[in-house]
Amino acid sequence: MYSEKVMEHFRNPRNMGEIPDADGVGTVGNPVCGDMMTVYIKVKDNHIDDIRFKTFGCGAAIATSSMVTELAKGKTLEEAKKIGRSDVADSLGGLPKVKMHCSNLAADALHAAIEDYEKHKGTKR
Amino acid sequence: MSRAKRIYMDHTAGRTVDPRVIEAMLPYMKSLCGNPSSVHSFGQEARQALEEARTKVAELINAESKESIFLTSGATESNNMAIKGVARRSRDHGRHIITSSIEHMSVLNPCKFLMTKGFKVTFLPVDQYGFVNLTSLEEELTNETILVSIMYANGEIGTIQPIKEISKMVHRKNVYLHVDAAAANGQVLIDVNNEDIDLLTISSNDMYGPKGVGALYIKKSTRLEPLIHGGGQERGLRSGTENLPSIVGFGKAAEIAKEEMPTESERLKTLRDRLIKGLLDPIPYSFLNGHPTKRLPNNAAVRYSFIEGESILLDLDMKGVAASSGSACTAKTLEPSHVLRAIGLKHEEAHGSLLFTLGRQNTEEEVGYVISIMPDIVKRLREMSPLTPKELMK
Question: Model-level pTM?
Answer without folding.
Answer: 0.93
